[in-house]
Amino acid sequence: MEPALRETVTQREQSMVLNDVNMLYHIYATVPPKTQRLMLELQRDNHVEYLLRGLQHLGPSFCSLDAKICCKPFFWHITLCRPWICYWILHSIALLGESVDATLEDKTIDFLSCCQDPDGGYGGGPGQMPHLATTYAAVNALISLGGDRSLTSINRDKMYMFLKRMKDPSGAFRMHDAGEIDVRACYTAVSVARILNILDDELVHNIGNYILSCQTYEGGISGEPGSEAHGGYTFCGLAAMILINEADRLDLPALIDWVVFRQGVEGGFQGRTNKLVDGCYSFWQGGIFALLQRFHSIIGERPTLVDAGGADCSIDSIQTTAESDLSEDEESSDGTSSQDDEACHFQHGGSQEASCSVNDKSAEMGPLYHSIALQRYILICSQDPGGGLKDKPRKPKDYYHTCYCLSGLSVCQHSWLKDEDSSPLPRAVLGPYSNVLEPIHPVFNIVLDRYQEAHEFFTRS
Amino acid sequence: MNSDEEEERQPERLPISRRPEWADVTPIPQNDGPNPLVPIAYKEDFRETMDYFRAVYRADERSPRALELTKEAILLNPGNYTVWHFRRQILEVLNADLHDELAFVGRIAKSNSKNYQIWHHRRWVAEKLGTDASNKELEFTKKILALDAKNYHAWSHRQWVLTALGGWEDELDYCKKLLEEDIFNNSAWNQRHFVISRSPLHGGLRVMRDSEVSYTVEAILTNPENESPWRYLRGLYLDDTESWINDPRISSVCLKVLSTKSNYVFALSTLLDLICHGFQPSDEFREAIYALHASESEPLDSDLGKAICHVLKYIDPMRANYWLWRKSKLPLRAVSSQ
Q1: Dihedral pair phi/psi, residue A175, rounded to 5°
Q2: Residue A64 DSSP symbol
Q3: pTM of the model
Q4: How does pLDDT run across B63-82, given as a tens digit for each residue?
Q5: Is B114 among the residues known to form the active site?
Q6: Of the residues B114, B128, B177, B261, which is catalytic?
Q7: What's the sign of the alpha-carbon dihedral A360, A363, A369, A372?
Q8: How does pLDDT run across B15-27, given as a tens digit for each residue?
Q9: Residues 288-307 of chain B whose Cβ lies under 8 A from any Cβ of chain A
Q10: Are B255 and B224 a contacting pair, CB within 8 Å?
Q11: Chain B residues touching residue A66 (CB < 8 angstroms)
Q12: Do B80 and A329 touch (CB under 8 A)?
């Protein structure tokens, strides 16, 4: 192998992004405190305005909406994906603690009803074949909207038949009739079935084997057996495994080791090893920690993993707790100690107490990733102050990134809590406390109280 | 091919309603309900094409003109899976030339290489063509990967081609070439793992392990900050942890990197994993780790696992909590080795 004298494509692209990010952090570090506070503030009003505008009307430029909105590195490149746009916008609005007026609510329900196939499931638009991804989006959109009219519009009996039709003899799911099989399909199917309370043994059968065959040598999960470990698929695979109560079949210590290393010096997450940071992975990767933390409350029992070395690593202790050596973390807890000083050297502006409180030895250390660094990336690098969020500096905002950056931000703010009903500690929140978003149920990515409403509704009926 | 492309560009498109061959068909407009939400301002040609598509789709008309219409619809919006699906049904009934179909998909894929529908369609066509399509498909993915060497769909397709249709002969060389171009390309490392563990030509992971370890160690020593070969190295011993712990090349590459005193996060983390699995480090390791910490006032824990976690927490602050957690999960075995 030749000595690495020249820069490779990976190195070149990475250093360009790092430059942009460091520039922003440098600006932050050098502006007056008042401006710093502003930079860390979530521009709620502008985001709400941007979102409502999108729901009411997608302007003429959206003729090419497909390429623009849906051509994302990850995940749901379904064109004419209006159910997706509905979900991204409605979920974002719910995260911000807002709601839509009655007219818009009715319009949404009517529109999604037009996308519902007479034989079950939802298509990307009226008259299109039902598709699992758009089905997941439509169901999540309706739940994010809430209310009896919205929830009763979902035909559960037909949905069950649709899901059964999408089930492949191997146990995995197809995205649509004769469509592709992958981990996304398994997750969306199980997520929809579980929340509608129609998940049974027949649907669950052998899904676990398929997902298990997608855990790669790196520790993460791929879309299909043999492919590369990827944040989106790892989230989907783990969430599906939790829903079918088989998460302990995965090599969780390896998965955790892979995902902690996806958080880069920028503070945000990358989707795969040696790829670029992207705001949407704040949720796909950051959400994995929330899944692991809530694992035991989600499935109502307490699984115990045997980690690599044979030591117990029960999942509910997946947050680190204060130890006798907590005082050592004085420098490192907010990342000011070493090497990557530009990216990590960071004053917490308006909330100095945001980093781990080093004097309080009984304090919890928080989650296994660096929550404050991730919030910093979301607020400073992914936020368009005029409304909307994005992948990284120089990229345009869109609804997809707005949804997943905000979802990731919510996960961060609530990540220190073991009790999901209490409010975040001020030190867990970067920027003003008014940044706090509604908590989500990480498995479904639905705001918690909407989830609870739906859960009760579908348990009753 | 050229005439096809010209035909596809269609600078002056004749509205379908004015084409005599469509005179018998009544287009069906989209039903968005009375109150369309997130309405999309469609262009006229798009709207008209989809209205005619709805008509043939509803009538289930699997005819040459319907095939032609799906082509127009796909060119206007290559992500519409309903159109692709119907196109496959027509292709089957008409017994169409699938080589032409591959060429058609190829032209679209070049500008839409991250679209799930295109790749799914391509797989369907290639599967129908069988082993004959193998070379063509490998060449095709190569072209896409030349533009973006980490395109997830292209890699998935390539793996499917190798598994279903064969063509493994040059695959290891191809991985080698891509890694020479960019040793940080994790997709190429992943493909390498795929080849050595699944290719029928190489005898499997255990047979390949020895030479692969040498290759990987060299890559690590050239760029110790590159996470990909470190993960690959562990992946070579997936079902054989015992050999991983006992292969002196693994621990010695850690030691070599530690002794350079730079870019040693992965070396320490690998060493920690080794110790967690029962590796008994010699004094050499202890000295190398203590040397990293020489300038700090506080002495390191005498337990090497704990000492490593401590150093990692310090030099890798982004994962400080993770290293604390790892420290709290260290097996008793390592503690009692003192």
Answers
A1: -65, -40
A2: G
A3: 0.89
A4: 999 999 999 999 988 888 89
A5: yes
A6: B114
A7: negative
A8: 999 999 999 999 9
A9: 298
A10: no
A11: 77, 79
A12: no
